[in-house]
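debug: dumping io for the single-chain case to check the tokenizer round-trip. Nothing else runs in this session.
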Amino acid sequence: MSTGTTVLLEPRSSDKTQPDTYSWRRLTSWVGTAVKALATHIAFLIRYDLNILKPLPINPALDIAVSNDRVPEQKTAEKVYRINDRGRVLKRSLRWDEYPVLSDGETLVPFLVVERLQNEAACMTYIRENTDIPVPKLLDTYKENGSYYLWMEFIDGVEMSELTGEEQSKVLPQVQEIIATLQRLRSSRSGGPTGLLSPPSIVYFYHLSEWEQRSSPEEEFVFCHGDLSQNNILVDPKTLKIAAIIDWEYGGFFPREHEIPFYESSETSGHQVKDNKYKPAVDKIIDFWRQSQKPASYESIPTSL
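debug: decoded output
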């Protein structure tokens, strides 16, 4: 999705041989997902009366721009996405001058967005090295002009949510096998592969500060994707085989409850949480992060939604 034309928007590789596999269908799908995600985020803030967010300007969630090489980019309130002319995907954090400005002049700063992208890069590498789960290959990561860049290979496919109910039923066993594979990866310490703590999005709707890794004498924490919705499952529409699991920002070793079965519905994970469909699991997740906070900020998280 997108940003200005003054920054480097090409991966560092000099390889010019990769064929153009650009998929307008996939790019358009990302647009819809981004808009839905921001709308859900705003709905949560209003619902719980956190007094964090004032009304945003019209259509703040999406800003489609065209870079110098005429490849469309897409910008949400947190990140920029882009597929370049060689079929490689960019996902980067916003620069300070790109942050949304609210109607009262306040700047909306994305929460831990750089750390989440760093955690995603670590998770993608870890999963590729330790399992046979299909994950996009990480091509490059770097910081430039105050923005964190994550480049990955493009995976052609459709989101599971775009399939018919019958087709989804054929994909579901594959998803369950992937979860079983993930949960065979265990650790005695919570957090991502490099120790980064990236709370799931449901924790972000509260006034939070810092967390500490949890530890246990046994390897009680299992690897969780953390946001395994149908939007993050890419499928080959011809074979109905999973082509890739994407968006690992919230991945890491956590209690099993962190892997809420969002993939059972075509709705976004945000909508499913908003509807209290998984309230018992959500309450346990909130309690886990409440107990993981450093002492000075322990009281800032409610015990239940």
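debug: round-trip ok. Helices lie at 24-47, 113-130, 165-183, 269-274, 279-292.
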